[in-house]
Amino acid sequence: MQPLQRYLYHTRAVYGSSTVEHPPPHSHATVVLVSGGLESTALLSYWTHWSHATEMIPLFVNYGQQNALKEQESARAVCQHLKLPSPEILNMKTLAGLYSGMQRGEERHNRASLRNLMLLSLGASAAVEIRATHVALALSKEHEPRSEDATVSFLRQAESLLHALEPPISLLTPLVQLTTSQIVQLGEQANAPWELTCYTALQGLANNHDYAAYTDRSTQWQHLDRPLLWQGSETAALQAGGLPSTLSPPWKVILLSDGSVTRHLQLMTGLPVSVECLEMRRLGNHETLLSECSGNGYNSDGNGIYFNNNLPPAISLLEGPLLQRQVLLHLPEPLNRAFVYAASWWNADTVEEYLKDKDQPIWVSLSRERTEMYREIIDLEYGHSVELEEKFGAKGPFWGRSYLFWHKGRPLTLIYEVFSSELEEFLGAPFMHK
Q: Nearest-CA neighbor of 310 among 287, 343, 328?
């Protein structure tokens, strides 16, 4: 038996310093919260494949989430494929209005607060009603850092609370120690019907069951090579001695300015700036899912969260689904070359509200709509990149920076920029000689 199989046959969830043994889900009715997504599909598939005696009662909760109908249909299709009962539908979508009404001004967002607590409570209520003995929630290892109601301490206390009922109900979180990549492997072992899930990125995996291809795909955006020659936050850079002492004032202004790069280029050169859009596409689920990384340190946000394909850690602040845009900013004759590379990430469902013309600079698009923005610089970088040397037609090393645009109290887009060393034609050499 493979390690992941042993893990689910002898389900054990480690909650902090306590270890709670869960009985294998044989011969007892289990209410399984389903979403039509990756985790619940993998769990249903695996239990169906290896535990034929399990009586599973799928439960779908519509709490007003944005893609509720799509998720509901996917959950129904998955259950039908696995020859499970069609999910019981609990319509709580009025909660969306409640949450929205209680949030104030710029605090508004689309997420239901304490979502897992809500789902767990509703699942337990359903279990009591139909005399089921277990409630299963498909939380993974990566949920914990992002949700206060998915932490080990919360799950430990929730387990104790359910055990206090009469008759007691057992909480099953069999995926809680597994990363997303391990969960995909788990689903592969059980021939999970990825093509029926609400994540289209998994459908290619369903067609050829090639897990290696799934994990090796790359978003192919260009960042400076690791290790960097220098890196620092905006706060550190603004302090005395924060930036390299010989960095010239004009370069400091460019790197730390909260103004438009496009406008700066136009003012420096007196030439119009054109945009070459290299890419503007919706990222697949396989590219944005949290997963184990190669260990180079760049993938981590410092809290143990790792992102596929070296996506910037700050991308976790954006609501998905995500769209990735890559551009080069060109100056015309007599220069006739690119001077800035930029990659940006947006919510794919709302990006057209802000970027109505993909061939226009972001600054132009936002200015036309008179969109009020606050720019938060995250960090500055100095390093090499062979790929960007080719795009710029210039030798490195290069300066780069990443920053967030905030709009109405929420992060709108994450932008990563790298400046050609040829800008010294207008700014002077980046470093002054002592």
A: 287
Helix (H) or strand (E) holding 429: none
Select, from the ranges 137-146, 151-160, 351-360, 411-420, the one with the highest average predicted confidence (pLDDT): 411-420
**Could you give the CA distance from residue 311 to residue 157 in angstroms, rounded to a whole number?**
34
Tell the residue number behind the tokens 């040397």, with chain if given.
389
Pick from 92-96, 167-171, 201-205, 310-314: least confident? 201-205
What are 40-80's pLDDT values in tens digits? 999 999 888 876 556 899 999 998 877 788 899 999 999 99
Alpha helices, DSSP H, located in 190-310: 203-208, 211-216, 234-238, 249-256, 261-269, 285-288
Q: How far apart are CA 349 and CA 60, in angstroms?
A: 24
CATH 3.40.50.620 fits 3-216, yes or no: yes
B/e letters for 192-229, b = 16+ CB within 10 Å, e = fewer, are bbbebbbbebbebbbeeeeeeebbeeebebbbbeeebe
SS (H, E, C) 238-270: HCCCCCCCCECHHHHHHHHCCCCHHHHHHHHHC
Chain centroid offset of residue 344 CA: 14
226: its two tokens: 């690791």
Helix axes 152-163, 115-130, angle to 10 degrees: 20
List, for residues 248-264, the tens digit of each pLDDT value.
888 988 898 877 888 88
Query: Are the beta carbons of 414 and 344 closer than 8 angstroms?
Result: yes
Domain extents in the chain? 3-216, 230-427
Give residue 371's Cα distance to chain centre: 25
Contact 427, 254 (CB under 8 A): yes
Does the pLDDT value for residue 133 go beyond 70? yes
pLDDT band at 208 (very low <50, low <70, confident <90, very high): very low
Question: pTM (2 decimals)?
Answer: 0.51
Q: Measured between alpha carbons, how far is 143 from 146 in angstroms, rounded to an integer? A: 5
Closest to 107 in 3D by CA, of 426, 410, 417, 412: 410
Pairing of β 170-172 and β 134-136:
parallel
Average pLDDT, rounded, for the chain = 76
Is 230-427 a domain of CATH 3.40.190.10? no
